Amino acid sequence: MSKEEPASLGLGKLPPKQLQMKILRFIGSERPEVKIGPKIGEDAAVIDWPEGKFLVVSSDPIVGAKRGAGKLLVLVNSNDIFSKGGEPAYLVVTMILPVKEGAEQASRLMAEIDEACREAGIAIVGGHTEFTDRYDAPVLAGTIFGTAPKVLKSEDVRPGDVLLMTKHAGLEGMTILAQDRPDLLATCLEAGEVGEVRSWTTSLSIGPEARCLGPMARFMHDPTEGGVLGGLSEIACQVPWGLELDAGSIQVHPLTLKASHKLGFDPLRLISSGVLLAVLPKETVEAARMELARKGILSSVIGKVVEGKGNCPESFTEELWGLLARK
Description:
CATH 3.30.1330.10, Phosphoribosyl-aminoimidazole Synthetase, Chain A, domain 2, 5-stranded mixed β-sheet, 5-stranded antiparallel β-sheet, globular, disordered N terminus
């Protein structure tokens, strides 16, 4: 990036030539059903919709992460589609960027998003790129569309159903800390342990377990802000029954536990995209866990659906923001 480039950019949208060169060449995976994708002068995408499928749509921003933010944008949005038993297919990206960073930063972020989309078979079908002097860090938001063969509804949950959790609590939060605040983790973890936590980024997709559990699940949820307890609390708000939790069965990785003891945070309230919470009929649980184990995916039974209130706490506290702000 030249020193002159940031000053030469005005506030607002990129000029068409730079937009074509820096942004629009990144279209993710090519999908034949996309009839009109991102082009200068085209106001909306046009997609030939497959018969017999349901449209699944979700939108999420990335506000806590800096390094790897483009890839994380694709992952967290895809996970919302996976949690509905769907397959992510089309992504719309909005980037609001500090003008001082220049168009090269926009291009780097789009290249990262493009790579993640190509790996996942997702087409980038549109979006918006704008430069501003109001923010010091990029603001990324994604809206993702997918197809699903059936509808997973919280109304279908029944007393006696089982709560299943995959992987371990605080998964996403720990990877963000390893990427953006390795200095903080270095106060309680060895260098090799910080590296191990950073490697967890390869486990942030819930696609493998969602494909396994979707056909037999009543309902699934991707716990993000507020962590596992926040995600369970959100399920409890939706279902017409109570959740009886066995908190001791909620898996926490030894490195997350070690860091939480030293830094004084609750790993059950640390942002946890990459974990899948599923409500399953009791009779399917054993087969489901066996299938997950064959795929090398850790799972644990953490509670059940009961008549009455249950013991699930109302919890929407997120630990990540305080950790990122520490000196």
